[in-house]
Amino acid sequence: MRSRVWIVVAALAMFSARAHAETPGPDARAACVAAMNVDKAFATDVVMNATKQADPAVLRRTCDVALGLDAKYAADLAEHAADLESANRRLAADAKQHETASDAIAKNERHVIIAYAAMWLVAVGFLLFLRQRQLGLRREIALLRRDLEASLKENA
After folding, report:
1. Other residues' Cβ atoms within 10 Å of the Cβ of residue 19
2. Please, which residues have CB within 8 angstroms of residue 8's CB and are 6 or more apart in sequence?
3. For the chain, how many structural domains are there in total?
4. pLDDT tens-digit profile of 65-80?
């Protein structure tokens, strides 16, 4: 992927040297557009590299010319910008709502305290249950010892 980008950058550098003398023909533009339409990642890399290397004033003039030449392109771009702005507003509203909910949960520790209290009650209940069983087993062992001693005295 990167090698393709460097090839395109090198080709653009060669063409930019010639651009002062002549403008690339429609065949070069068509080939570039076709290659960019086939591979969206390639197209993104080309645009990003061209944008990084270009002068912002030149980019602005190029965009102004393109917008002036093609009214549909200008309308599509305006619609896309409106969609992006709307999406950014929705994302900001969602983020604020999530933050508000997170703050409410963090401040509302009541449910956490109730959960810990319930766990402690279950643990204490279990320990009391074990204690009762242990006492019952001790009583049974004492009873069995008495029965064993009594039976040993009868047999002796």
Report:
1. 11
2. 42, 45, 46, 49
3. 2
4. 777 777 787 777 778 7
